Structure formats: C-alpha cells, structure tokens
Amino acid sequence: MTRNKDVTQSKDLTGSYDVVVVGGGAAGLSAALVLGRSRLRTLVVDAGEPRNAPSDHMQGYLTRDGMSPAEFLALGREEIARYGVELVRDRAVDVARGEDFAVRLAGGDTVHARRLIVTTGLRDELPAVEGVAERFGRDVLHCPFCHGWEVRDERFGVLATSPLSVHQALMVSGWSDDVTLFLHTVAESELSDDDLRRLAAAGVKVVPGEVAGLRVEDDRLTGVRLADGTAHDRTVLFVAPRAVPQTGLMEQLGAELQETPFGAYPVVDPTGRTTVPGVWTAGNALGFAEQVVHAASGGYRAAAAIVGDLIMSGLDAALTD
C-alpha cells in the first residue's frame, strides 16, 4: 500500500496509484476523501462537467441545503487535497485491464492503478422544445425534491414525453394545486383509465397538443405555447430529460449492464462493486435517481470497500510468499 506524500493538486502525473477515481462530482470526491484518509495514493480525473451545473443551488443535503453546486465541489476539492489526493482536469478516454488498470487521458497521459472507481454519471438530453434548454435549472425543472419548495404554489406545467410523465404530474401536485399536463408527443389514448382517474383526483388539467415553445417575459417563464397557436399561463415547467448513462469505460472493461426504463447501468453489489474485478462505481453512474446526498454516500461506501479489499489482498499475498 503506497503512503501519501505532501498535499498536491497535480498535473504532472507520474508513477502508479492505488486507486484512480474517474469523475470529480459528489460521488468521486467523497470516495477520494475516504481513500486519502486511508493513506492510499489516489488520483481523481475530473472533466469538470457535473450534471447539476445548470442549477444555482442544491437542496435536501443536510447542512448543505441551498448551497451552490459549484461551491460544494470546490470545498470537496479542498478537503481531498488535505490528504494528498491528486486531481487532474482531464477526461478518461480509454481503459485497459492487465496486472493493473491503465487509464488513458485525453491530454495524452496514461495512469495506472490497482483499483478503479468510475463515477462518470450521466448526461441529460432535454426535449427539443424552444426555450427548454435555455431555462433548464431555473424555471424549467425536472425534480420536485430538488426544486419543489422554491416554486411551491406557482402555476406548474408538466411536459409529457412518454406515458411515464403522468407520474411526474401526479408527484408535482404535492407542491401546487395548479398543475397542467401538456401531452405534447403523447396521445390521449396512451393514458390508462387509472392514469386519468388519478390525474382527476389530483386536480391536474390535461391539455392535448404539441408544445411549440415557451413564453418568456423579463427573463421569467410566463407561459407555454402550443403548435396550434394557443397559450397557457405557466410560471414553472417540469420536464423529464432522457438519461444517457456515461458507460463507455464500463463497456471497454466488459462490465455487465442491466437495462432499466432510464437506460443501461452496471450490475453492482451493495458496495458498488461491478462484475469486473477491481472496479467500483457510484452516483448517477449506477442509477438515474441518485441525488447528491446519495452520490456522496455511495462514493464513501465504494471507497471503504476498496480499502478493505486492498488490505485483505495484501495480507493474502504476504501469506503466499
């Protein structure tokens, strides 16, 4: 087990690491903190593209409620540096498994590690409706747990992109009594009788027809425009982005993936260990619904498992010498 030296944030990558963490979000930084405190030489490779970058604040994380995601990550980077964890701004583009893991970076370096944690998360593909991408994270939202309190009792719209959007409309009705479900690309015939009864019980208005764009005044959402020219006053619009898991490295390693309604994710055990020996994952890399607090917890759990794995494998190796 390699002992850490002085605190560094390195761009001159030399030698081998005990662990390379690919991804510097909440999951990756949490894992790195545990690994650094466990005296393992650790490198975080961070492309600097967190999923929650469009949001001005994050919610629901005890003692960090309302904090800017950028500030949260900056504090995390400061904390891991105290324990000698190195961090490089780069992207892992290729990985191979031999006696150790060889991770090739976009900048040209190749780094080696005994264990690997992949926390590359996912990418949100937003519906192709004029104005949605520009206002995402402001008054175009996706998660009531993340933003519901801040927009409570406003006039909600929900943009349907599949029958699953009914569930989103029912959920957000807990934060406002004024909710309209715009069917957009979903036909009325695709809604079940149970869907319609629940929507009626929740007081959700259902509007058929494709949404053409948003109405914005003084940099605030004021309405939703339909393709037929009609408009509906709304101050908040909930959408359901299409989740695109970033599984390229996992596929290169031959990890088993499982299909879900929100994409294919690695098969893991309770610690985040994948089917590839020596490889763990955490955060949105293993599921669509992982919030920041879940991601941080998962990174901690994966790192603790790796520490135990390295200690025990070292002892087993010593016994066979």
Task: Please describe what this structure looks like.
With 321 residues, the protein is an alpha/beta fold. It has 8 helices and 19 strands. The strands form 5 sheets. Strands 1, 2, 3, 4, 5, 6 and 19 form a 7-stranded mixed β-sheet that branches. The protein has a 5-stranded parallel β-sheet with strand order 8-15-9-10-11. The protein has a 3-stranded antiparallel β-sheet with strand order 12-13-14, with no helix packed on it. Strand 5 and strand 6 (110-118) form a beta hairpin. Helix 1 packs parallel to helix 2 and helix 5 packs parallel to helix 6. The protein is elongated and about 75 Å long. The protein starts with 15 loop residues before the first strand and ends with a helix. Residues 1-10 have low confidence and may be disordered.
